[in-house]
Amino acid sequence: MQRLKILGLSGNISRPSRTASLVRAITAAVGKLFDVDGRVIELADAAPVLFRALRADQLDKAGRDIIDAVEAADILVVGSPVYRASYTGALKHLFDLVHFRALTGKHIILAATGGTQLHGLVTEHQLRPLFGFFNALTIPTAVYATEAEFTGHELTSPDVAKRIDRSVTELAQLFRRADANSGNSRSSPQREIVLAQT
């Protein structure tokens, strides 16, 4: 059976990055839930490759590998620093290159970082509509963190950790319901889901 593919996408365009730290923390939590390793792509690395193409048919092999990884993922953790009240242009360009049907039914956890709580709704007003266009399933609880919730660039806030736990729990509930509806208690013919004990 094919195991779930979990991919984190961090919209940071510089390093070190609080956003990348947040995306890694969420991706690791999802990986523990399903007993698989998750990979994280940072736009600081991917953007120079992707900006060599303005359309998907112009992608070189390195760019195509990045987009293929996004389209093949079963679960995406997508985070961005807030830049001018929205997600970064580099992250937008990545999703401009993703096929519009490739994310249908995929599960997405949304995350963002910002200087203050004033930007906390960027996940609802910017990121969630983006994945609505792709017909993806965004998890109800998004994860937002401010600079004060990090020590250096490492996430240290117990409140944010609780939101991560809530988001991952909601993800697990969605998979359990899907399995129950399909008549399977643990897995389906197309995927192997190993849920950790909760």
Structure description:
Strand 7 and strand 8 (154-155) form a beta hairpin. Helix 1 runs parallel beside helix 6 (158-181). This protein has helices spanning 18-34, 43-50, 61-72, 89-96, 122-133, 158-181, and strands spanning 6-10, 39-42, 75-81, 107-114, 137-138, 143-146, 150-151, 154-155. It has a single domain, classed as Rossmann fold, CATH 3.40.50.360. The strands form 2 sheets. Strands 1, 2, 3, 4, 5 and 6 form a 6-stranded parallel beta sheet that branches. It has a two-stranded antiparallel sheet with strand order 7-8. The chain is globular. It is of the alpha/beta class and 198 residues long.
Number of contiguous helices: 6
Class from secondary-structure proportions = alpha/beta
Annotated CATH architecture = 3-Layer(aba) Sandwich
The description of the largest β-sheet is: 6 strands, parallel
Total individual domains: 1
Distance between termini? Answer: 24 Å
CATH class placement = Alpha Beta
- Global Rg: 16 Å
Number of strands: 8
The coarse silhouette is globular
Topology-level CATH name: Rossmann fold
Mean pLDDT: 91
- Strand share of the residues? 15-25%
Low-confidence stretches: 185-194
Write out the CATH superfamily name: Flavodoxin domain
- Strand-and-helix sequence, N→C? EHEHHEHEHEEEEH
Q: Work out the helicity level.
A: 40-55%
Domain NADPH-dependent FMN reductase-like: 5-146
GO molecular function: oxidoreductase activity
InterPro entries: Flavoprotein-like_sf (IPR029039), FMN_Rdtase-like_dom (IPR005025), FMN_Rdtase_MsuE-like (IPR019912), NAD(P)H-dep_FMN_reductase (IPR051814)
Family: Belongs to the SsuE family.
